[in-house]
Amino acid sequence: MSLYVDEAGASGASSIVFLHGVGTSGWMWGKQIASLADFHCLNVDLPGHGKSNHVPWVSLTDSADQIEALIQARATNGRAHVVGLSLGAYIALVLLERHADMVDRVVISGVTAAPMPNRALLPAQLWLMSALMKSRWFVNTQAKSLHLPPDMQSAFTENLLAMSMQAYRRIWEEAVDFHVPAALRRVNTPTLITAGSRESKIITQAVEAIPKIMPNAQGRLAPGVGHGWNVEAPHLFNMMVRAWIDGAPLPDELQAAHGGSTMS
Fold it and tell me: Which of 32, 72, 138, 247 has the fewest CB atoms nearer than 10 Å to its CB?
């Protein structure tokens, strides 16, 4: 079973693979695909999500290996840049751990660098979320809290209601125990770690922590925005991605995190 991929942009140009967050699908990258149409864009629905709902979610490692196979098969010259948010950002880090030789430059947002606190509460929290996430009212409320435009709120609601709760639980069980792979200390792929400044503390801390581990990484915070800031502040997000891929100076609006390298 293969993953659903929406292929857009300029055929033959450098490829960008977009990896979305949990409970969503490729629709969340609409503003990025439009802005970066001069690149060859591969917008993936991850296992258990969207039009890849039929593909079972197994693990971050399995998903990273599927993305590697996709890059080999469909990216220009078998190489790609990668942009990931939340779940997609975790997969991008595992992809760097296992297949860095196929990745040119990476932008990720919304990850943790160490296991989350209060993990003993996870089973009860997941049980509650499993119940609530089959309630259209609750899911609609979640969509509105993310400041999504009306068309994206509808897509978010339908994707989350269709998602297997078994897949949702497996993803969160792995995410709460995630730690940055030690192998990334030897990965020189230029990597930009970002987050909205209104994110939780454990995520904003990772913007500083991960560049201390990786030899060619930087951290940046986007002021005044939250987890899904590619939708909240698409112009800034798009300028950042383009600058990072081109090796150009990053937008001045971004706040530097301490401890990263000065390379771009």
Answer: 247
Side chain identity, residue 105: R
Identify the band that residue 112 occupies on the pLDDT scale cut at 50, 70 and 90.
very high
Residue with the two structure tokens 């259209």: 136
78 backbone φψ class: left, alpha, beta (φ>0; ψ -120 to 50) = left
Q: Cα(214)–Cα(127) distance, rounded to whole angstroms?
A: 36
DSSP string of 84-142? EETHHHHHHHHHHHHHGGGEEEEEEES--SSPPS-GGGHHHHHHHHHHHTT-HHHHHHH
Q: For 182-219, what is each residue's pLDDT tens digit? A: 999 999 999 999 999 999 999 999 999 999 999 999 99
The whole model's pTM is what? 0.88
**Residues in Cβ contact with 197 at an 8 Å cutoff, skipping those fewer than 6 apart:** 204, 221, 222, 223, 224, 225, 255
Pick from 190, 174, 212: nearest CA to 86: 174
- The average pLDDT across 55-78 equals 97
